[in-house]
Amino acid sequence: MADEHTIYDDLGVPTVINATGTKTRISGSLMREEAADAMRDASRAFVRISDLQQRASELVAEVTGADAGYVTSGASSGLSMAAAACLAGDDLETMARLPDTEGIPDEIVMPRTHRNGYDHALRLAGATIVDVGTNDYHLGTGSENVEPWEIETAITDETVAVAYMEKPYTQPPLETVCEIAHDNDVPVIVDAAAELPPVENLSRFLEQGADLVAFSGGKAIRGPQSTGILAGDEDLIRSVARQHLDMHAADAAYDPPADLVGADELPGVPRQGVGRSMKVGKEEIVGLIRALELFIEEDHDARLREWHERAERLESALADVPGLETRLEGGDKTDAVTQVVATVDPDRAATDATGLVGALRRETPRVFVGADRLDDDEFTVNPMCLADDEADYVVDRIRATLS
Ligand SMILES: *Cc1c(COP(=O)(O)O)cnc(C)c1O
Predict the structure, then answer these.
(1) Which residues of the chain have pLDDT under 50?
(2) What sign does the dihedral 42-48-54-55 (CA atoms) show?
(3) Exposed / middle / buried, residue 13 (Cβ in 10 Å: 0-12, 13-18, 19+)
(4) How many Cβ atoms are within 10 Å of 336's Cβ, its own excluded?
(5) Residue 31 CB: number of other CB atoms within 10 A?
(6) Model confidence over 244-270: pLDDT tens digits?
(7) Residue 217 is part of a domain; what is its CATH number?
(8) Which of 4, 22, 7 is nearest to 225 (CA)?
């Protein structure tokens, strides 16, 4: 592990031991070898990108139960393209002018407690987010964050979609939100970027009524880092394709795949749309296809058991580090992957949780543990992206830093 030579050594860039899970800022996950091989193979011949997206669409449809699918440049770009599709539909003029939405409906309704940094992706396409409800449940000032009627009354002639941030604990239930949206003829966009595993989630949100669902291709699927999947309604995916593919050509010679683009319904050829700056190359599409096929075939229960056992070993190894209290979390319905939560007692350890996290990140190789709970003097150790020898190494470094 630490003494293995990598291309990053040649470049003089420190590598990372990833004990925090699939986080984009430390490069997500390790791509499957077969996906990397597929990318090299893909680089050896030309292909019409629309043909390749059509093939990817069929696979995404098959594994999600959706009508159609599309490979985007990350789940984040999937959200931008979903918003673009809901804004423009099949209107070429709107496609040509996004993200300028002056004079046209451009609102996306979102429960306030679903707002997060990634919703910038929706605004990138030109949408304005209208958030509804309160923070009552999370603050303990009430039993609900948002009532269904609040979503209903927020939907007006200006609304193009409802957006939903999927976590096992998000409220109201997706089915309820979809019912309200559909009663008002508005589609629902779901950010499910990190909601795999469990694998069942590939189809679950669509079954619950979602019109477009975005997943990350660079997290648990272990495809290329810069890929994502958008799955859902055929007409909306067509709008995505029309606004993403570079296909401006002489009208007489314009002949993209019928299912994916539906060019017959258009009065002309779409120009480079708002998605053009979110290009996905043939190598990425092929790598994602291969990774998704392998992800589907994987023994998911065995993988979860492996992570659980590694988390148990990590927890027992960390339990006797002075000043550290550990417990296991997850491995249940709300959170598929078990991880270790460790509380640092700064009076008994050499430093506090913040000091530990910072020191580990400055080492060579860098060691990243989970740092979302430093206010509680807690850090987390996630088994997903660790080999067994790396797990031992992480325990040693934590012990050495706290002693
Ligand atoms: C990771 C993540 C994204 C972005 O996914 P990318 O594939 O990196 O673009 C969006 N939303 C949520 C909730 C995420 O966790």
Answers:
(1) none
(2) negative
(3) exposed
(4) 22
(5) 24
(6) 998 878 888 888 999 999 988 888 899
(7) 3.40.640.10
(8) 22
The DSSP bridge partners found for residue 232 are 68, 212
Residue closest by Cα to atom 8 of ligand 1: 74
How many Cα neighbours within 13 Å face the side chain of 365?
Answer: 20
Residue where a domain terminates, one of 262, 297, 332: 297
Residues 303, 223, single domain; the answer is no
Q: What is the 75 CA–ligand 1 centroid distance (Å)?
A: 5
Amino acid at 20: T
pLDDT of residue 335: 84
Main-chain dihedrals φ then ψ at residue 397, nearest 5 degrees: -70, -35
Task: For residue 136, tell me if it sits in a domain.
Answer: yes
Cα of 85 from ligand 1 centre, angstroms: 19
Q: How far is the CA of 198 from the centre of ligand 1 (A)?
A: 16
Distances, alpha carbon 120 to alpha carbons 47, 78, 116, in Å: 32, 12, 8
Q: Which pLDDT value is given to residue 336?
A: 86
262 C-beta closer than 6 A to ligand 1 = no
Quick one: pLDDT at residue 334?
Answer: 80
Decide: residue 364, CB within 10 A, 0-12 exposed, 13-18 middle, 19+ buried: exposed
How is residue 323 written in tokens? 């000043």
Residue 369 Cβ < 6 Å to ligand 1: no
Could you tell me which residues are beta bridge partners of residue 192? none
Q: Give pLDDT, residue 1.
A: 64
For residue 3, the model assigns a pLDDT of 63
| Domain-ending residue, one of 297, 326, 341 | 297
Q: Are residues 42 and 15 in the same domain?
A: no
Q: 161-197: per-residue pLDDT in tens?
A: 999 999 988 999 999 999 999 999 999 999 999 999 8
Q: How many CB atoms lie within 10 A of CB 281?
A: 17
On whether both 153 and 229 belong to a single domain, the answer is yes
Contact (CB, 8 A) for 275 and 28: no
Does the beta carbon of 194 sit less than 6 angstroms from any atom of ligand 1?
A: yes
Q: Are residues 231 and 307 in the same domain?
A: no
Q: Is 367 helix (H, G, I), strand (E, B) or coil?
A: strand
Residue 218 CA: nearest ligand 1 atom is 7
